[in-house]
Design brief:
Elements: E1 2-5, H1 11-24, H2 36-42, E2 48-52, E3 58-66, E4 76-83, H3 92-106, E5 111-116, H4 121-129, E6 133-144, E7 147-157
Parallel strand pairs: 4-5
Antiparallel strand pairs: 1-2, 2-3, 3-4, 5-7, 6-7
Length: 158
């Protein structure tokens, strides 16, 4: 497996992996896969990665979104890591998250945060193993399919 920069040409594979996450109802509040333009606008250009199998198939992606557009928070970003169903449990998420942390550090960011549904135990374990710590539980922070959901807030200081 190798990690490379995510490009617009990768969007079909990235969107398919995102759609798998949306379908679980435990990865995101989103219910529709965004267009490339929507996704591109929401994520930091310098911090977008894909994981590729030896044959070149994309099996995961990771990216950072700005926490806020206010200057005081310029070094704070939110983490997204998604792994294709067929590649889970093979270290893809760990490789992507480690590379994303290094990208953030190299880019001068100082804090990464992740908001994860409590039911998404695999993602919680991944982030904890990568040095993220729980800073709180945001109870009933949003609705998904008409149901209020909690989100565990984790962060890693760089």
């Amino acid at each position: 497996m190798r990690i490379e920069r995510l490009r617009e040409a990768d969007w079909a594979a990235v969107a398919a992996i995102l759609a798998e996450g949306i379908a679980t109802r435990n990865a995101t509040f989103e219910v529709v896969t965004p267009t490339w333009e929507e996704w591109d606008h929401a994520h930091l250009d310098a911090h977008r990665l894909v994981a590729l199998e030896p044959g070149g198939d994309i099996v995961g992606w990771a990216a950072l979104s700005p926490y806020s557009r206010r200057a005081a928070y310029a070094g704070v970003a939110e983490v997204s890591v998604y792994v294709a169903d067929r590649a889970r449990g093979r270290g893809v998420g760990r490789a992507l998250l480690e590379a994303l942390v290094e990208s953030a550090r190299g880019g001068g960011l100082w804090t990464l945060q992740a908001g994860i549904f409590p039911e998404n135990e695999a993602s919680l374990a991944l982030h904890r193993s990568a040095g993220f710590r729980k800073v709180g539980l945001r109870e009933r922070i949003g609705r998904l399919d008409g149901t209020w959901r909690d989100v565990v807030l984790l962060e890693r200081r760089l």
